[in-house]
Amino acid sequence: MKVFTPHNHRRCQVCSQGFFADSPICFEAVGADETLIKYETFARIVPTDKVEGYDGIMQGGIVTTLHDSAMLHCLFRNSINAMTVSLTSRFHYPIAIGQELEIRANWVKSRRNIHFLESKITQNGRLCSSAQSQFMSVSNYQT
Q: Distance between CA atoms of 30 and 93, rounded to whole angstroms?
């Protein structure tokens, strides 16, 4: 099931632009029980030369941006509008341009209006990058 993106997020430079195989990123929800908040989101994309840093390798800042986007869409799936409070990413292996990657994000827990999430990017079955973040709910922000 495709994750609904709020109206106020339609101009996101990461989600709506064709950096990845010339089409917007389409995050999908994983999880059968609609009553649980512990949904996972994922997307499969092919990085193009538009996101290249070193020759043939995806630029690190964009890798981190992908983590942020995936985790935010995990919150969208749960009807939570939030903004990033902190984000830590780790690079395990370079991500090759032109080869499909998969990004997965999942909700870990929430405390009051702070939500803790994590994500992983894999390519060819290899963990390339992982991240942890905290998001703050923004209840008065219209969608």
A: 25
